[in-house]
Amino acid sequence: MLDYNAAAAVAAIVRTGSFEKAAKALNVTPSAISQRVKQLEERMGAVLVERGIPCRATDKGAWLCRHMELVGQLENELVAQIPELGDISSGPVTVDVAVNADSLGTWFLPAMAGFTGRSNVVINIAVDDQDYTVDWLKRGRVLAAVTSMPQPAAGCTVTALGHLRYVSTASPEFMQRYFAEGVNAEAMSRAPVLTFNNKDTMQGDWLAANFGSLPAPPTHWLPSTHGFVEACILGIGWSLNPIDLVAAHIAAGRLVELVPGATTDIPLYWQVSRWAQNQFPELTRRVVDTAKVSLLQR
C-alpha cells in the first residue's frame, strides 16, 4: 500500500518548493520530511523530487502529486456529505493548468477569476508554448491545458475555443530605420526580430508565409508577452503580437503594422482530463464562455 504520509510529504515539497516549508506546512521536522521522501523513493526505486531552489517533481513525482490532489478532493467531498467524520478535510484542492503565455496575458485570467471566485480551489498555472502545453497533460503534470493541438491526450476531452489573432508590429522609428525602402525580404533579413524562446516559431512562420525562404534575421530573446509589446514600442525589434494588446497602440500611432492585413490566427483548444471535467465543470464553462467573447470565432 502507498505510504500516504510520505506521499503527502512529496506533494507538500513540490507545492511549497522546499523541504523546510513542507515541514512547516505539515507541522513536522525537516528531517522527518526528508526521511519520509527518502524511504518512499527507495521503495519505488525512483527519484520523486528534484532537489534544488525550488524543488520540483520528477515525472513520477508529478503523478504522485496528482494522486494526492485527487485524494484531497475526495476527502473534501466525503466530509461535505458526512460532517460527522470531523475535520479530516485536506483544505483547498490545487488544479494544475498549462497555458500559453499570450492567452495568459490576454483572456485567460478573467476566466480563472470567474472560477476561483465561486469555488474552494486554487490554480497552479504552468506556462509553455501552445504547441507544447498538451505535453504537460500527457506527462500527468496538469489536469487541463490551453493548447493548439486538437487531438485529445489520453483520458481528456477537447473543446475548440477560437483563434487568437496576431499582427506584426514595429515602432514608426524602427520602420524608418529598417524599412525606409519598403518591407521586403532583404530588409526583413536585416531587421531585428523578437523571439519568446527556442520553442517560438511564430515569427519565422510568418516570415516564410509572407516572404518565402530568407536568412534568419538577428533575434532578441524576450520571454514576456507584454514585454514584446513594450519592446516594439521602444524600437528594439519587431514581432507578432495579439491584436487585443496592440490595437490601441496602432490607433495612436505608437506602433505600425509591417504588412497591413497579414494576420496570423492561432487556433486554441481546451483539453481537460475527464476526472477534472466531472469534478470541476464550472472551470470548463468559465474558460469556454470567456474564450467565446475574447477570441476570434469562425
State the low-pLDDT regions, or none. none
Count up the helices: 14
Instruction: Work out the number of β strands.
Output: 11
Assign a percent range to the helix content: 40-55%
Structural class per helix/strand content? alpha/beta
Into which percentage range does the β-strand content fall? 15-25%
Radius of gyration (CA) equals 23 Å
Element order, helices and strands?
A: HHHEEHEHHEHEEHHEHEHEHEEHH
Biggest sheet record: 7 strands, mixed
| Broad shape | elongated
Mean pLDDT: 91
The span between the termini is 51 Å
Please give a structural write-up.
With about 300 residues, this protein is an alpha/beta fold. Helices cover about 45% and strands about 20% of the residues. The protein has helices spanning about 5-15, 20-25, 30-45, 60-80, 100-105, 110-115, 135-140, 170-180, 185-190, 200-210, 225-235, 245-250, 275-280, 280-295, and strands at about 50, 55, 95-100, 120-125, 145, 155-170, 195, 220, 240, 255, 265-275. Strand 7, helix 10 (about 200-210) and strand 8 (about 220) form a beta-alpha-beta unit. Helix 1 (about 5-15) crosses helix 2 (about 20-25). The mean pLDDT is about 90. Belongs to the LysR transcriptional regulatory family. This is LysR family transcriptional regulator ArgP. It comes from Aquamicrobium segne. It holds the Pfam family HTH_1.
Brief description of this entry?
This protein is of the alpha/beta class and about 300 residues long. Helix content is about 45%, strand content about 20%.
Key words describing this protein structure:
alpha/beta; 298 residues
